[in-house]
Amino acid sequence: MFVAWRDLRFARGRFALVAAVVALVTLLVGFLSGLSGGLAAQNVSAVLALPADRVVLAPPTGGGAATFGESVLTPAQTRVWRDAAGVTALHPLGLTQGRATHGDVSSAVAVLATDPGVDPDGPARDGRVTLSEDAATALGATAGATVRIAGRDLRVDAVTGPSWYSHTPVVRATLADWRALAPTPDAVTGLLVRGDTAADAADAAAGTASASPLGSLRFLPTFRSEIGSLALIVALLFGVSALVVGAFFTVWTMQRRGDVAVLAALGASRRALVRDALGQACVVLLGGVGLGLLVVVAAGAAAGTALPFVLSPATTLLPGALLVLLGLGGAAAAVRTVTTVDPLTALGSHR
Amino acid sequence: MITLHDLVLTYPDGDRRLTAVDHVSLSVEPGVVVGVTGPSGSGKSSLLALAATLVRPDSGRVVVGGVDATALSADDAAALRRERIGIVFQQANLLPSLTAREQLQVMAELAGPASRSARAAAPTRADELLGAVGLADLRHRRPHELSGGQRQRVGVARALMNDPSALLVDEPTSALDSERGAEVVDLVVRLTRELRTATILVTHDLQHLPRLDRVVRLVDGRVTAADAPAHAVPVST
Ligand SMILES: Nc1ncnc2c1ncn2[C@@H]1O[C@H](COP(=O)(O)OP(=O)(O)O)[C@@H](O)[C@H]1O
Ligand SMILES: [Mg+2]
What we know:
A: alpha+beta, B: six-stranded mixed beta sheet, about 30% helix, globular
């Protein structure tokens, strides 16, 4: 890195420019990642936390893919699953969006229900609910208050952590209370199944669709379109940054070919030349990404609760590391030509 | 000590081959400067490139400080160059981002990061050599702040940094006026004596020949007047 460091200092304007571009890309990627993470959490955090090994839903009778919103599971389908191989526990799931009121305050909520004792965050018995943090804030209710859902007065057992479904905060109730909201009297939204089940056979026999809680995100059509477009933009930005860094180091390496030929003629090892060039790219990338992440963290902290923004290693360090890797890939493609420089050209009268 | 045995080098030339160096043998002892002269295109640079292990001969052998360089891999040839061969180029070929002293220090870093002791010794050695070429005061200047003659002297000092057994100099005076050129040749001769390098100096400038120990004249890649003492070579124009 002897020459690399001095080149960095000597041509600092050029390197600062590229580092600034990398910082900007990092800023955009970090911001979009944080926003995607925030939006995703507001869409699906309750689904991801469902207490089950498999979530079973019923596709619409008219055909088409199963969704949380439209799923209605009949008692007959429940019976098939109850008898399926490998099922160690099975509980009904109720999930419906509705309104809750507390005094004069009314708010859209998602009511999530199963048998008492299955969901550790759920209420202990009928006539009770628990409010997720944001539901409690929206309703202005605390533990001990009474909220009204679908014409029933329910006492708030506790306020739990954040939990969201389809951008509405979650209220947990028992199945019996949820039925007041349910579209058909003895049907449920789905099943929460424990055990290492023969899921394909059970799905075929019952005419249902099942997946792990993570896999069940595909039963949320809005999630796919929402995250899909954001992920596409993030992927494009990753591509842009690899190209920008690769292009810069291609031009830079071509400019340096004469110097590289001289160093090779003087006896520099190819390894030392490549290490120098890659080390230089690494410094530029780490500087740019580091700067970009600092701004992302500052902006994310400033945004606070105004935006659904998630600051976590997964939305900052991970994309940052990916940007460094992609940039190094671009630089490596350029720097490879260092090994093809003929030291003989250093002897020529014109370089 | 550097010995060239019966070297032949050809370049592709259409569907035939052009013979740039044609059965040349040459032996240079420590502390001796041999001049290589001849018209443009006579193979002087090609011969120097062979001696510097920058190209591989079609046939013949190059032995530097007791090591046969002919069969070395590219990496081993690079190691031989950095340990035993000093090269001074026609253009000084200094690195634009380095100061004069750093141009010399870089010679300790060619194989990767230098060892702690090598790194500690490099600045002292660099200052010594810059003093020897009369540039002690300019050691913090970068190439664009030096004159052509000063740059070429930095190039000479750099070539001597790793204490080479052979010093190979290609037309060091071609970019300089005759006075500056004479100074550089005198410097090479003086340092050859002091540091006991085996030196080959390529020049087409006959004015410098009397300062050298022996002169080899090349025409079309062949030696026409070899191993004659410098003063016996007719200096004609
Ligand atoms: N890389 C090369 N490829 C093809 N021909 C070359 C190359 N380098 C030199 N030559 C040819 O070899 C001959 C000797 O060139 P060179 O050694 O540079 O001579 P000098 O240094 O005496 O001017 C010339 O005819 C030149 O055109
Ligand atoms: Mg030449």
